[in-house]
Amino acid sequence: MDRTFIVGGNWKMNGDRKAIDEIIKFMRAGTIPTNNEVYIGVPSIYLDYVQQRKPKNVEIAAQNCYKVEKGAFTGEISPDMLKDLGVKWVILGHSERRKIFGESDELIAEKTAHALEKGLKVILCVGETLDERETGQTNAVVFRQTKAVADKIKDWRNVVIAYEPVWAIGTGKTASPEQAQEVHDALRKWIAENISKEVADTIRIQYGGSVTAGNAKELATQKDIDGFLVGGASLKPEFMEIINANVKAEK
Known about the structure:
Blueprint: E1 6-10, H1 17-29, E2 37-42, H2 47-51, E3 59-62, H3 79-84, E4 89-92, H4 95-100, H5 105-117, E5 121-126, H6 130-134, H7 138-150, E6 159-163, H8 177-194, H9 197-202, E7 204-207, H10 216-220, E8 227-230, H11 239-243
Parallel strand pairs: 1-2, 1-8, 2-3, 3-4, 4-5, 5-6, 6-7
């Protein structure tokens, strides 16, 4: 099954207008493969600024949104607000949202369902902690996080899953290509058995966790890795190399 390779950059809480201008500059100067899909996850305060300046073949993603369309939810933003700015994607369920801000599987599932209902595309993040990996719970955790969403939605066409082992995020540690492929394969099989074979065959599963220009090409060779969700490296020119990681060199 051909699945379009998709690379996202999650800027997290980084950047100002000067830094953003530099990122946009190297993105405009670089090459983005015609057959690849690219998005950048921008702090909400700069979504409109980046939307006005980004390359045309790059989409913008918000890093969060809430589960209702409006109301007394100080500090939150809604899918309707994002759509008003022309934003098409949102990242939900990132481990930092789960751990630091206490977001539960249930809340993330509700937010995902509402975002999809409103017409956004969702990057759904799943992944285990170091303790969970060392105690053999990796698959159970990833399956549980995915099931919470599967209980709330039926249509997966606008969902991309990002598998991000928490122990590899921002630590410099990366799951080996074999470790990453093993989880991607297991998750795809779980989806086939618990959602549908069609969804399993078509859904894209990104890998995230200290992805760099140095390891992206090898990771991209794995059959169930359909792209990357990149953290710190997306703030640097090497992001363009990662975007091209699946492009085979001409002989």
